[in-house]
Design goal:
Strand order of the largest sheet: 4-3-2-1-5
CATH superfamily of one domain: Ribosomal protein S16
Distance between the termini: 74 Å
Largest sheet: 5 strands, mixed
Number of helices: 4
Radius of gyration: 23 Å
Helix content: 25-40%
CATH class of one domain: Alpha Beta
Length: 124
């Protein structure tokens, strides 16, 4: 059975609300599904996206193929990146690490804009 991770449309006319589900590829868009993974509400500003990471990763590991829109939503939450690194067998890079760049001695290091404005006003 081919499984797809896709959106199911709910809500009323011109007020869409979507559920992210794992469903058989042959099932209708709003038909039977295997498991609900989260929801997406594009009406809110910013759009409300809630996805259960463990459930999504479970279905991706089992070979479920996301649709283009589902893949975009998974990427926004960082789930797709985590899955691809897991698939390649590489550790997920830490985004909190700050790269240290060595500068030659005597070179000025860039300052935040607020400090630059304060420095120019002190010189005057």
């Amino acid at each position: 059975m081919a499984v797809r991770i896709r959106l199911q449309r709910h809500g009323r006319k011109k007020r869409p609300f979507y559920r992210l589900v794992a469903a058989d590829a042959r099932a209708q868009r709003d038909g039977v599904f295997l498991e609900r993974l989260g929801h997406y509400n594009p009406i809110n500003e910013p759009a409300d996206v809630v996805i259960d990471e463990e459930k999504a990763l479970k279905w991706l590991r089992r070979g479920a193929q996301p649709t283009d829109t589902a893949k975009r939503l998974l990427s926004q939450k960082g789930i797709w990146k985590k899955f691809t690194y897991e698939k390649l067998g590489k550790p997920l890079p830490e985004s909190d690490e700050i790269e240290t760049v060595e500068t030659p001695e005597g070179a000025e290091t860039p300052q935040p804009v607020e400090e630059q404005e304060a420095a120019t006003s002190e010189e005057e």
